[in-house]
Design a protein that fits this description.
The chain is α+β, with helices and mostly antiparallel strands. Helices cover 59% and strands 11% of the residues. The protein has a four-stranded antiparallel beta sheet. It holds the Pfam family DUF421.
Length: 170
């Protein structure tokens, strides 16, 4: 169906504008952390906020107030999880992943790569993207908690810096 009614289009314009303004206000009030890409919970909140906004826009069965309340609830829950994880090491270990060392001093850590389901090709792609032509030039490649790969070149690591002290072996 290409066109249902003018009132449907009007609803999308009015409710969509108001829902968008509400979402921006909620995110401004909640702070930068709400949309940070730090872990799986942050991703879930970001996707859920987008889904909620889409539902408010396109479903006339969801009132604007209900949709805004749903967005506020997601932000409050996210705030609660981050508040607890900052204050409770036990809770933090339950909800957050640790970074994983995938390459150390030019050697691929096959067990860690297998556990994290990362291939050599993905690690070498991260090396190339960081301007490292050869794995031997890398002090470390780390799978971060947000799923990104960080590359530390040997010349960046410097003397006395040991990746083993800052990361668990995986």
């Amino acid at each position: 169906m290409f066109f249902d009614s003018w009132s449907g289009l009007g609803r999308v314009l009015v409710v969509g504008t108001l829902a968008y303004v509400a979402l921006v206000a909620i995110l401004r009030i909640s702070g930068k952390r709400s949309l940070a890409k730090l872990n799986a919970f942050d991703l879930v909140v970001t996707v859920a906020l987008g889904s909620t906004l889409a539902t408010i826009l396109l479903s006339d069965r969801v009132a604007l107030a209900e949709g805004v309340l749903a967005m506020v609830l997601l932000i409050v829950l996210q705030f609660g999880i981050t508040w607890l994880s900052v204050r409770s090491p036990g809770f933090r270990t339950m909800v957050k992943n640790e970074p994983t060392l995938l390459l150390r001093e030019g050697r691929f850590l096959e067990g860690a790569m297998r556990t994290q389901r990362i291939t050599r090709d993905e690690v070498t792609a991260a090396l190339r993207a960081s301007g490292v032509a050869d794995a031997a030039q890398a002090a470390a490649v780390i799978l971060e908690t947000d799923g990104s790969l960080s590359v530390i070149r040997r010349d960046q690591a410097g003397p006395g810096k040991d990746m083993r002290e800052s990361l668990p072996d995986s």
